[in-house]
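Table 4 source record.
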Amino acid sequence: MTVTTPIRVLVVDDEILNNELIQFQVQAIGYQVVGCAYDGVTAVKLTDVTHPDIVVMDLRMWDPVTKQDDLTAGLNAAEEIQQLCPTRLVLLT
């Protein structure tokens, strides 16, 4: 008998409704949500802690440091994630 472990996903989107919808869709296809974040800074930290198989992340998010909408927040976080803990990424917009 083969036991399969579900794919572990970190969901990152600053829009609460989008974040919840992505989590729902991820779980509906049998994947496991290991965490969610609403900004790139938190996404980097959670990736380092949870070591997901995939990070599904919005490109444009609120930046908690500058307190502004950042068109490249997802790309910046993706770069940091790859340097800290190389992980597969799906970037959404």
